[in-house]
Predict the structure.
Amino acid sequence: MKPNDRNDTPVILEKDAKAWWKEGVLYQIYPQSFKDTTGDGFGDFQGVIQKLDYLESLGITMVWMNPFFGSPLVDNGYDVSNYTAIHPRYGTMEDFQEMLDGLHCRGIKFVLDVVVNHSSNEHPWFQQSRSSRDNPYRDYYHWWPAENGTPPFRDSIFDPEGAWQFDQQTNAYYLHYFAKEQPDLNWENPKVRQEIYAIMKFWAEKGVDGFRMDAFQYASKDTTFPEWPKGHEKEYDKWYGMRPQLHDYLKEMYTEVIEPYDLFAVAEGAGTSFKDAHDLVDADRNELQVAYHFDCRDISKDLEGYQLSEFKAVFTKWDAAFKNNGWLAIYLSNHDVARLIDRYGNTDAAFRTPSAQMLNTFLLSMRGTPYTYYGDELGMTNIDMPKIEEYVDVSAIGDYNRAKAEGEDMDQFMKKLNFNSRENARTPMQWDSTKNGGFTEGKPWRKVNDNHQTINVVAQNKDPKSILNHFRKMVKLRKDNPVLVYGQYQILQERHSEIYAYTRTLDQQQVLVLLNFSKKQATITLEETIKTGTLWINNYDRLDAKEGQITLQPYQAIICELIN
Ligand code: GLC
């Protein structure tokens, strides 16, 4: 098979097709859980500084860090009360600069989390806004005067009581799509937008390289607040997200901040259609540069597991839609979902290592910028939290209250929460087998997973066949081979029930990726035209191949070059 044989249309490369943020390998750090140096039980910037050599050893080239700004921490920092200050828990601005310089020296770019769909209710803007109806900050937020009656129903992602909160002081309701402590900013107000660009410029001047726009699809609102049909909230993103005006604001942001500082921005969310996603990130639109969708998250919430066919379909359809223009992030986990190995792999002792390696092989061999969540390079797993009293996450508690109010079967609910909750992904990083996994000398803010005795950096560093060392190998492979970054993706034998097989092709080079997603041996018979050459990656010592038939061990992952 010749490169391009499977694709009759030539690839039209978009304007400025090559970009560092496409070639990068991103690593996400949840700062309160990474490394504590003060003994207060929360990770801090000095902790990241201590681990800079570790980050470099991974080979990653970008770090996205979750919010660390001034905040009352109702939603672990996604409720910002001071956008240009560091929360003392993490250190000082000097520590931030030292961390940033340390990353930059090692060739690692920094992506800042920008949380501007909403602020904290303790932000001075909101304090002003709620103080009187004629305050100059009043229209920084959305208010509904109570004399006009109850506001039209709006649902909240976190609050079972809905998205309008009554505020006695001015006899009015304010809008909050997330918790009531996270009032939504009024993006229709040009002054608000200018304030936000000023904040982004502040950080750009400090030297950050990119932005992750939190919950951004919801920023623009129809401020007449029309009644929406009953049940509309079942299609949340469609009704609450992606108003056409959003694109004007993004273009404005591009001109004001992104272009002059030569940065990039990634959107959390990608609307509800490919068109929405393209409208956000196509190169000729000058809005955002990368998007990430939620489809892979949405197929993996059931206790019964997910279907490989759906998994393949999600990634294949998104790749096809972005073949010629636009760019996506590839991720399987982050701070908002449970651990990847619990959802897509297998935590049984016999399968944990190969399944985590196989999933990391997938992430690092797809088209799109790969995002690895801290700890996934070790195969860190979910934690068992069967009782609601153990939960601190505003979203888990909100979901619990909602389920209770709706009379759900609470035993079943707790089972699901235990499996799906975002707290699973927020446990401290497992550095070694000592008390608290080497994360803190104090009392960790979240309990460290007991399995840190076996799953930790020190142990895996020593083992050339560990998940960690496989991850390093994959990162290097991706960075050394543009075919893994830019090469076209083509799925093979889509219906195979255990193996996910695809090729990546760039110019005359073509590689084959074979991933066994099951805990059984699985065989694939390749087309006669496929001639395998050098083996680039294999997470087992063996490879059973004869006459075009390849049998993969449980969760075996291989990548090999093909001979034309
Ligand atoms: C985004 C963040 C999530 C946060 C929410 C509200 O979805 O990823 O962690 O709770 O926005 O800011």
Q: What stands out?
A: Residues 38 and 44 are 8 Å apart (CA to CA). The mean pLDDT is 95.
